Amino acid sequence: MPDEPTPEPSEPVPSPEAADEQPSAEAASTDAAASGAAEEETVAADPRLEELGTLIDAALGDAIVERVVNRGDVVVRVRPDAWRRAAEFARSELDCDFLSFVSAIDWKPAAREGDEAGGDTSAPVQPTEMTFGSAGSAGRWQVFAHVQSTRRHWGVTFKSDVDDSDPRAESWVSVYAGADWHERECWEMFGITFDGHPDLRHLYLPSQFEGHPLRKDFPLLARVVKPWPGLVDVEPMPGEAPEPAEVGAGDAAAGDAEGDGG
Amino acid sequence: MSATNPPRAPEFDIDHGAMRHLADAQVNVELDTGDMILNIGPQHPATHGTLRVVVRLDGERVLSADPVIGYMHRGYEKLTEFRTYPQVTTLINRIDWLSSFANEVPFIDAAEQLMAIEAPPRAKYIRTILTELSRIATFVLFLGEMGLQVGALTPPFYGFRDREYVLNLIEAVTGGRFHPNFNRIGGLKDDLPWGWIADCRSTMGTVLDSCSMFEDLVLGNEIFEARTRSIGIIPPDIGAGYGVSGSNLRASGVDWDLRRDGRPYLVYPELDFRVWTHADGDSFSRYWVRLQETRESALMVLQMLDRIPSGPIMAKVPRIIKVPEGEVWVETENPLGQMGYYVISKGATGPFRVKIRSASFSNVSILPWLLRGVYVPDVITILGSLYFILGDIDR
Description:
The structure holds 2 protein chains of 2 kinds.
Chain A: H1 16-28, H2 31-45, H3 47-60, E1 64-70, E2 73-78, H4 83-92, E3 98-106, H5 113-116, E4 141-148, E5 155-162, E6 168-170, H6 179-190, E7 193-195, H7 221-225, H8 244-261
Parallel strand pairs in A: 2-5, 6-7
Antiparallel strand pairs in A: 1-2, 3-4, 4-5
Helix pairs in contact in A: 1-2
Chain B: H1 16-31, E1 35-40, E2 52-58, E3 61-68, H2 76-79, H3 85-92, H4 100-115, H5 121-149, H6 154-174, E4 183-184, E5 187-188, H7 196-219, H8 222-228, H9 236-241, H10 247-250, H11 258-261, H12 283-307, E6 326-334, E7 337-345, E8 353-357, H13 359-364, H14 367-370, H15 376-386, H16 390-394
Antiparallel strand pairs in B: 1-2, 2-3, 4-5, 6-7, 7-8
Helix pairs in contact in B: 4-5, 5-6, 5-7, 5-12, 5-15, 6-7, 7-12, 12-15
């Protein structure tokens, strides 16, 4: 078993100063600036992440679209044609032998059908414009994966853009055997095809299932079939404007009154 | 064998268990049976729920195995997009229902990191204590149930009994045996009840005693050794490639534990504990490692009970929880392996996307590789020794 001394103890635990600083920064400026400050702090604090970053830069070079350090995690966005090469490099050069997951992100703004249909008022309202997280994205789809090293105790998150019209990515199964199930799940949930996967078939869902449930435009069917039961408990406070449903009832009553008058 | 001994080296030359099966197999070859498809599960006790393994047999030997999962898929990754952050903890309690409290910790940690809130020290201590108690409850059940997989009926009774002691402790604090839902962003719902620390201390003594008892009862049993030694060997590189983690990987000799080696979380950096590994990687070593880790967890709880600071249990948190835009990957060492959440927030009251990395999913994904070539009775011991929870596979 590898018993090499790790530089782990030198890594400082999150200090109370950092915790004090961040809310003030957040209050003073936008959220983006606050997260930027946190990123810089982490880079300065951990030389191992620097070392990891330079290793990645040297090996992948022009295949890297963007590389950032996000809260102690190195996020590397690679070109789509270098997706498998990134895995091979991580496994052989970075010593990342452990696969955490392979999955995808749909950056499309969340559907607000719940609000419009008056069904699910409990669903949190997300922004309507499309924004991208760490390391950015060119379009709606991204595949992302996390690998780690069991010996050197570091990890990397890889991201790669996926074409909007024809979502496909290279398969990692030949590099990490465990990517098999993760890619099957990703395929059925997002509809992203993995080229080179030996056996791309349904994992969780029945084989006749149509649609890709984790896409943002796929509604939460339970809410479509039946409105959120919590709505029943919501009664208008005395003196408040009546609910839309009661407005409808009022219209009907008005119609009746007209009928009587006529 | 005492806790201070180093892991045992393999001490056998002839694999008696395999020899016995070999004899059986030869009998079957004479009968000239063709390939046979056998369904194990979805209701087999060794599957802890509804895992179905379709195996193709040549006599008693497994030619290929295909786990069929999804009988319990609840779509938590989708549901989290329709919930607020405090509501999500209710969902993720039900991923790995044996150690629900440990599931909450990484998600709450992720939300706290994004909001730049840090829980007070006392809250962190209580969180760590309850996480370790969940680990003990989970492992003690395994220590008993593994006996059941090889046909021993006594150990499960002891396992369930000891688990009940620990669950009583968790219930006394959180009010829930299975689904505590006790973590809040910025701290905890309540403080420890009066007299709980003394109760916990005495129960940890009981747990330590039962560990010794399991050592005598199960590990010292010849039949158990014959059924588990050199059965279901996971080589470290293959295991890591499949994402097998936690005790399963440490039983293959990989000295890696996020409590010690990962990004610092909770109060683990302040604790003094040993990470146990075993060189063999077979079913026996998985049992051995979990037994040592149960004992280690009990000792960690005792350490924390001595050191637990006083003070508040909640940080200052806004009344309406809106998490600033950003994303974060948080992973922790859960009883069944590594659990991680990749949380992407867009500044709303609920997450935009949560990728849940559950331990059992990856642990079980090695089955097609691992079951190839083993004999039918060993399938059961291998399934049992991997120790998975269906909710953790199907999410």
